[in-house]
Amino acid sequence: MSIAIGLSIAAGTVVTVELNRGSGLQLAGSDTVVVRSGDTLWSIAGDVAPDQDRRAVVDAIVELNGLDSVDLLPGAELQLP
C-alpha cells in the first residue's frame, strides 16, 4: 500500500514540474524555486503569489534568502515564503 501512495505522489510531482516548464519558473520543491535566465525577483514574486502585493513578496524572498542584491544567477535555488 505504501508503494502505491509513493508512486501516486511521484506521478503528481512529475505532472507539476512538467506544467511549470513552460513558464519562466521551475519549482524545485514545495517551498523553493530554481532561477532561470531572465527571472527577476519581481517576476518570481508574481508567479508564486499572484494575489499578493509583489513588493512584500520580494522583500520576504530577499530576507529569507539573505540576499544582498536583486541580481539573480540562473541555477540558483531560492527559498520561498
Provide a concise account of the structure shown.
The protein is α+β, with helices and mostly antiparallel strands and 81 residues long. It has helices spanning 2-20, 41-48, 54-65; strands spanning 26-29, 32-34, 77-79. Strands 1-2-3 form a three-stranded antiparallel sheet.
**Named CATH topology:** Membrane-bound Lytic Murein Transglycosylase D, Chain A
Radius of gyration: 14 Å
Tell me the helix content.
40-55%
State the end-to-end distance: 33 Å
Structure keywords:
alpha+beta; globular; 81 residues; 3-stranded antiparallel beta sheet; 12% strand; single chain; 3 helices; Membrane-bound Lytic Murein Transglycosylase D, Chain A
Word description of this protein:
Helices cover 48% and strands 12% of the residues. Strand 1 and strand 2 form a beta hairpin. With 81 residues, it is of the alpha+beta class. The chain has a single domain, classed as LysM domain (Membrane-bound Lytic Murein Transglycosylase D, Chain A, Roll). Helix 2 (41-48) crosses helix 3. It has a 3-stranded antiparallel beta sheet with strand order 1-2-3. The N and C termini lie far apart (33 Å).
